[in-house]
Design goal:
This protein is mainly β and 149 residues long. It contains one helix and ten strands. This is Lipocalin-like domain-containing protein.
Length: 149
């Protein structure tokens, strides 16, 4: 009987070890300020950039405000972290977003069709420093943000 119990426990442990590991996906929620000194950008950094992110999986909302030469501008994007594409219509045209995970990296692909043409971007978001630093890779640019508050 004791040998049978040890066998059952061994089989259960083996089953647990062979189950696929669940990826731990970070949550990017927060207010993030650009650290231009740690960023690598192809052009001069804006005076300031702030990201406001609210993530409640699968919903993801990002609002970006930027100040350049004293002028402020903002844009926002909404996506789903479960890979489901979204389409929305606004004054700038039709915006399509597709988000998905690659390990702990969140990938955002968005495309806007408007009267002035098509715009397409891919941004890869990661967290580091225990969640205090957000890194956004966009084309050849590396935007580094620190968590505010």
């Amino acid at each position: 009987m004791r040998l049978k119990s040890i066998f059952v426990v061994a089989v259960l442990l083996l089953c647990c070890l062979t189950l696929p590991a669940q990826d731990s996906h970070p949550n990017f929620t927060g207010v993030w300020k650009l650290d231009s000194g740690r960023s690598s950008l192809n052009s001069k950094a804006p005076d300031s950039v702030t990201l406001y992110i609210h993530q409640n999986d699968p919903d993801f909302h990002l609002r970006r405000t930027e100040v350049q030469h004293g002028k402020s501008s903002a844009w926002s994007v909404h996506g789903r972290t479960d890979g489901k594409p979204l389409e929305s219509k606004g004054r700038e045209g039709v915006k399509r977003t597709h988000m998905y995970w690659q390990g702990s990296q969140l990938v955002l692909e968005w495309k806007t069709d408007s009267k002035s043409g098509e715009m397409q971007k891919t941004v890869r978001y990661t967290l580091s420093d225990g969640g205090r630093t957000l890194i956004a890779h966009e084309d050849d640019n590396k935007w580094v943000f620190t968590k505010s508050g």
